[in-house]
Write a structure and sequence with these properties.
alpha+beta; three-stranded antiparallel sheet; elongated; binds zinc ion
Length: 355
């Protein structure tokens, strides 16, 4: 602002100087005119006087034009800050003395005037109050317990700051509960979680925890579906499972197969060939195979797996008797029972052929 005012004053002065120069021009022109007139009609004295007057006016005009030019130049220099009447602003901690008009600086920034950190305030500049780092915090070298912590309440300690002498208090952590042994309140099984409990001996707080389920107890394999043996002696896999003996949950299920022994294979082939041209009761076929020399076990195995329908066998046998002999219904039943059929099979067979 100050600067703008002085500029305005300079502009005014330049305008005045210019006007004065213009006036001086007019004055010189008038002197010239008078001098020219005198040259034509005046005396020598008059001419000399007017010439001198004209020369003086010319000099004044030149001087005033010169002054106006200098002023104009000065205005230009101020406006572009080539010339500045600096207005210095005081240096701060971080900035040197600076001209508010042209921005030029002088000297160095002052640098902070640090005051050391204390227990409660960080390192601070006395001049600008800038801070650095953290407060030191109080430094208590020896704490005295004024209240002991329990498992339900925090404790308290007191001490004095070695640096500033201020009295300090602090809380101490609660103690852990002092639990007794776990007692099982509900046994775990392989299907249900159990529960156990323990009690703090100082405050009586009870804590419970679940007990993991126990493992299942696998029992023996149980056959759900026997492997089947075709009358030709090939084996189709069976199925067996294993369950927990405690809860009955099925734990494993798998297919399994059996290997036929040489005796079983041959007994089966023999049984099949008998059945292809003759009818038998279960026990009749077993006896026939034993008669052929097979062991009782192989014979039973072969008959178990021969695929025969014993009711149908009874019917075939009944028909074969009737083909060469006459029977009463009962006589035929008795004959079939004698052949090893059960009474029910015999009745079925007899009914099947028309009795
Ligand atoms: Zn300046
Ligand atoms: Zn500072
Ligand atoms: Zn302190
Ligand atoms: Zn407790
Ligand atoms: Zn179980």
């Amino acid at each position: 602002m100050e600067d703008a005012k002085s500029n305005t004053a300079a502009v005014d002065a330049a305008a005045a100087a210019t006007q004065a120069a213009r006036d001086a021009t007019e004055a010189r022109d008038e002197a010239q005119r008078q001098y020219d007139e005198a040259k034509a009609s005046g005396t020598e004295e008059e001419i000399a006087e007017l010439k001198a007057k004209e020369q003086k006016a010319r000099q004044k005009k030149l001087a005033l034009y010169g002054a106006a030019g200098v002023l104009a130049l000065l205005i230009m220099l101020f406006a572009t800050h080539v010339i500045c009447f600096h207005k210095w602003q005081d240096a701060t901690c971080t900035v040197p003395e600076t001209c508010s008009v042209c921005g030029r600086t002088r000297g160095e920034a002052l640098g902070h005037e640090w005051k050391e950190a204390t227990c409660t305030s960080p390192k601070t500049c006395d001049r600008c109050e800038e801070t650095e780092g953290e407060a030191l915090g109080h430094k208590v070298e020896k704490w005295e317990t004024t209240k002991k912590a329990t498992c339900t309440e925090k404790g308290q300690q007191e001490g004095t700051c070695a640096r500033c002498g201020k009295k300090q208090t602090r809380e101490t952590k609660m103690k852990d509960h002092s639990f007794g042994d776990w007692a099982v309140t509900k046994e775990a099984s392989c299907t249900k979680e159990g529960v156990r409990t323990r009690v703090c001996q100082s405050c009586g707080k009870e804590e419970t925890e679940t007990i993991k389920k126990t493992d299942h107890t696998p029992g023996d394999w149980v056959v759900v579906q026997e492997p089947s043996v075709t009358s030709l002696g090939s084996v189709n896999a069976g199925v067996r499972t294993r369950s927990c003996t405690a809860c009955g949950t099925e734990l494993e299920r798998e297919e399994f197969t059996i290997e036929l022994t040489m005796g079983q294979k041959n007994a089966m082939a023999k049984a099949a060939s008998y059945l292809s041209f003759q009818s038998f009761s279960y026990s009749g076929l077993v006896e026939q195979l034993e008669f052929e020399g097979f062991s009782h076990e192989d014979a039973v195995f072969a008959v178990d797996h021969c695929g025969a329908d014993w009711n149908e066998q009874a019917a075939l046998k009944a028909q074969s008797y009737l083909d060469f002999m006459s029977f009463s219904r009962q006589g035929l039943i008795d004959q079939l029972v004698f052949e090893g059929f059960s009474y029910e099979q015999a009745e079925y067979g007899v009914s099947a052929v028309g009795y």
